[in-house]
Design brief:
- The chain has one domain: Alpha/Beta hydrolase fold, catalytic domain (Rossmann fold, 3-Layer(aba) Sandwich).
- The protein is globular and about 40 Å long.
- The protein has an 8-stranded mixed sheet, with helices on both faces.
- It is α/β, with parallel strands linked by helices and 259 residues long.
């Protein structure tokens, strides 16, 4: 990976990101408990066509911790603050899981600054679904380091090497239980239905065929009837890791979609 580390001072705190390439700006937002390194296997190929900026969301990776609870809209404001600090007037954004929630918020709240919005592996959940699964959510995110037995089945066979697991747990430990749970609350409290109704930016939805989000594909298709729905075969919740080439091709397909 040839991306360079950057620390960017913004009005919402210092944000760490990895940056590579030139061309249309593409901001990538990771899932909960991760960092910009979630995209390490795709940055070089994406950088052949785009100016790739993969951030550490506030409170995770090496970015500053927010001074208060951040909602999905607050995180979207932080993306715009990063854009302002980097002199990026308009960008496409891709967000995975909690990053997908932020991407939806960006498309609704900052449509004029958005080109394309890639919603990646974002499962649409009702409040009842959140409530019923919350004990498991708290258990998952308060026990931050994870073992090979837990992580291995979430990705394709052979993907979770000891070195990969080290990176995985470094990121989870950097974020810590409180910031991870705050991110889950941001997802839970996000009125996604309202934001999807007002989302005017060009949207592309990406799923892994074995991930949790594909089960809610019909809901997303109804909310965004004009958005391409791309399902990546034999991928789980982390398609950018399971199949980097297919993920890059999906991003390229999204950019080819007529705005």
């Amino acid at each position: 990976m040839h991306a360079r580390d950057r620390f960017v001072e913004t009005r919402m705190g210092r944000i760490h990101c990895l940056e590579a390439g030139a061309g249309p700006a593409l901001i990538l937002m990771h899932s909960n408990g991760a960092s910009a390194f979630e995209y390490e296997f795709v940055i070089d190929d994406l950088a052949k066509k785009y100016r790739v900026i993969a951030w550490d969301m506030p409170g995770q990776g090496d970015s500053d911790t927010p001074p208060r609870f951040f909602s999905a809209h607050d995180f979207s404001d932080a993306v715009v603050a990063l854009m302002d600090a980097l002199g990026v007037q308009k960008a496409s954004v891709g967000g995975s899981s909690v990053g997908g929630s932020i991407a939806i918020a960006l498309g609704a709240r900052h449509a004029a600054r958005m080109d394309r919005v890639f919603i990646i592996e974002y499962p649409v959940r009702t409040e009842k679904t959140w409530q019923d699964g919350w004990a498991r959510t708290e258990k998952t995110w308060t026990n931050t380091p994870q073992t090979m037995d837990i992580v291995g089945p979430r990705l394709r066979p052979g993907k979770v090497t000891p070195e990969f697991l080290d990176r995985w747990n470094i990121d989870r430990n950097k974020a810590g239980a409180k910031n991870c749970l705050n991110a889950m609350w941001a997802m839970r409290l996000h009125d996604v239905e309202a934001d999807l109704k007002t989302l005017t930016a060009t949207a592309i939805v990406i799923y892994g065929s074995k991930g949790p989000a594909v089960a809610t594909k019909a809901i997303m298709a109804a909310a965004l009837p004009n958005a391409p729905q791309i399902v990546l075969d034999d991928c789980g919740h982390f398609p950018m890791i399971d199949d980097p080439a297919a993920f890059v091709a999906a991003i390229d397909k999204g950019f080819a979609t007529k705005a």
